[in-house]
Amino acid sequence: MNQLMPMHLHLSACGRITALGPTLAKIAAQAKIGAGGALTGQDFFQLFDVRRPAGVTAMADLSARQGERLHLGLRGGDVAFRGLAMADVSGGIVLNLSFGIGVAEAVRAHALTNADFAATDLTVELLYLAEVKRTVLGELQRLNQRLQGAKIQAEEQALTDTLTGLRNRRALDLRLAQAVAGAAPFALLRLDLDRFKAVNDTLGHAAGDHILRMVAQILLAETRSGDLVARVGGDEFVILLPDLIRMPRLIAVANRIVAAIARPVEFEGHICQIGASVGLTVSTLYAPLTGDAMLQDADTALYAAKRDGRGRVMAFPDLVQER
User: Fold this and answer.
1) What strands, in cross-sheet order, belong to the sheet with 8-11?
2) With bands split at pLDDT 50, 70 and 90, how would you rate the model's confidence at 89?
3) Where would I find the GGDEF domain in this sequence (predicted)?
């Protein structure tokens, strides 16, 4: 019996526990049920509560429920069982118990091993498979998280200028398309550095890279967190400013940027002096509105500023009054 049903109980005709399986004895000892955890000789109904079906409180009730699934638990404990009762020839009852769907929690709570189950019981194998499944699913979830993180990082890199950390032309195209499709007005500033080629030619590309990173910092400092600042060429930048179309304010922002870029910069003991020219336009001037038209007109205004002496701001068309 102990090998076939390590969680069985044998009850006498009067309801006393005369024998029990080793696994059940182990659980009772851990739960300190009965006299020091020993169940033999004690009244079954004082130690166990038959919860379903209702009304099983005596041996006659238990005998009448032979072959039915029973739900019961140890009184004073949180251990729940399922059971099946069968009468023996002496008028007693053999009651075989199992954990049912709570087996995983029971195994962990009572530190049960393969030896605590019958050799033909597949519980341990099923628990092993469940643990393997949980482990695999957990690893797959972690892998998916890593892949998602890698995807986000790759997408971020695909939209970022590696030298300056600003957005690149692809990011500008995506954001500009969203702005054109949206209802909110916006402005475009196109900026080109003056005398940048002279720095590259005389001091080398390292100095040029230093200048570009400095310009990027200035552009970020002079714009809002919701604005898009992109490097779209060697020394060309575009700024998209949502919900900002008042021309005086745009001119003021652009002039601050031009003034900041015009400040001398030191590189390895050399003073670098560059400048910037800016062309700008606003979305409310266009019907229909297209991103290409705005970029082209901002570019036209930019080169008008360069022709007019560089280091200045020009709106397209030549508007400085508030619209």
Assistant:
1) 17-20, 8-11, 93-98, 80-87, 70-74, 48-52
2) confident
3) 184-318
pLDDT in tens, 248-299: 999 999 999 999 999 998 888 889 899 999 999 999 999 999 999 999 999 9
Secondary structure E strands in 233-316: 236-242, 265-267, 270-272, 275-282, 313-315
Of 76-90, 105-119, 168-182, 282-296, the least confident: 105-119
Is the pTM value of this prediction over 0.85?
no
Output the pLDDT for position 126.
65
- Taking residue 91's Cβ as centre, other Cβ atoms within 10 Å add up to 12
Complete DSSP assignment for 53-64: STT--SHHHHHH
pLDDT at 24: 83
243 is catalytic: no
Cα separation, 181 vs 178, whole angstroms: 5
- The CB density around residue 64, as the number of other CB atoms within 10 Å, is 13
**Bridge-based pairing state of the strands 313-315 and 275-282:** parallel
**Angle separating helix axes 103-110 and 123-158, nearest 10 degrees:** 100
Residue whose structure tokens are 């002279």: 198
Q: Which residue of the set 192, 194, 235, 297 is catalytic?
A: 235
Q: What is the DSSP letter of 35?
A: B
- In CATH terms, is domain 169-315 a member of 3.30.70.270? yes
Q: What is the pLDDT of residue 128?
A: 58
Tell me the per-residue pLDDT of 145-159, one tens digit each, with 9 for 90 and over.
888 887 877 777 889
The pLDDT, as a whole number, for residue 16 is 92
Domain 8-121 fold is Beta-Lactamase (3.30.450)
| Bridge partners of residue 52, in order along the sequence | 71
Question: Smallest Cα–Cα separation from 198: which of 271, 256, 301?
Answer: 271
Q: Which amino acid belongs to residue 16?
A: R
- Which residues, 6 or more positions from 317, have their beta carbon under 8 angstroms from its beta carbon? none
Token pair recorded at residue 182: 């949206």
Instruction: Give whole-number Cα distances, 135 to 107, 129, 130, in Å.
Output: 17, 10, 8
